[in-house]
Amino acid sequence: MFGFCNPKKETPEKIYKYVSLSTIENVDYFLDLILRGKLFFQNPNKFNDIFELPAIAVQHNTSEAHKYLKKNNKDLSDYLDSISPEAQETWLKGFVSDEFSSSSVQQFVHQIKQNIGVCCFSTDPKSILMWAHYADKYSGVCVEFDTNLEEMFKELVRITYDDNFHPTSHIKGIDLRSLASSKSTFWNYEKEYRLFQDRSGVYDINPKCITKIIIGENFFNLHLRGRYKDGEEIIQSEVDYANAIRKFKLNHLPSNISIDYIRKQKKKFELYLASEKPIV
């Protein structure tokens, strides 16, 4: 995988993915996930943090640069092989120079960002901000995964939160996975873990690792206009999506998945699950 180094991997027993159901595409994704174990890995260029994959510094060594490009970037490697040794050396000197690396290396990182797939999770199913930001203002859901039931989760990487960039200083050690696992402390409420794939897109997981669906506080106010599949039939026009989900649960929800509900504490700015006792 792009010659990535492996940052410290940790595997919490339960992880959670907040899901918006505000569009037809989101609903299709949700149903594909819980019914067929289809997990989507998104391109980081579409993330909401403009500091994803910060600047990279490289060492001034044309030989190491050439080896690295041969291993990690076929297009540039093929180009270098097509020019004379003198032109090749000139190009590589420019690549590792302070003046040239800022544009060349960042272009290289941009190419990687165009391809890499990232899937994000949290260890907190009761985050006020996560429900607001990623589950469409509490009208979506939060999906619980048991990491012991899926091999892929052994590769989970915990996000580290810091107020400073920590770029790598050696081109042979450009560690894009580590860079993609570092975020500002402003995001530490997410308690985030990530999985990585060489390409964005849909990957198969064991559907039985999905153990719970937590319903948002505003879920039963949600109305969806359009068409979507609920497993067998297509419902059209404006529908009461909550009723569709009730019908869907009775007819289609796998037996390994339970339903829970997020609730507001009465005397604190906190959330709790309906399966728990509220703080009195």
Walkthrough of the structure:
By secondary structure, the protein is of the alpha+beta class. Helix content is 31%, strand content 23%. The protein has a five-stranded mixed β-sheet, sandwiched between helices. The longest helix has 18 residues, at 98-115. Mean pLDDT is 76; it is low at 1-6, 55-60, 168-173 and 223-239.
Write the layout of secondary structure elements.
Blueprint: E1 14-19, H1 24-36, E2 38-41, H2 62-72, H3 74-82, H4 85-96, H5 98-115, E3 117-122, H6 128-134, E4 141-146, E5 157-158, E6 160-161, H7 176-179, E7 182-183, E8 192-197, E9 201-204, E10 210-215, E11 223-225, E12 228-229, E13 234-235, E14 238-240, H8 241-252, E15 258-264, E16 271-273
Parallel strand pairs: 6-7, 10-15
Antiparallel strand pairs: 1-4, 2-9, 3-8, 4-10, 5-8, 11-14, 12-13, 15-16
Helix pairs in contact: 2-3, 2-4
Write out key terms for the chains shown.
single chain, 280 residues, alpha+beta, five-stranded mixed beta sheet, three-stranded antiparallel beta sheet, 8 helices, 16 strands
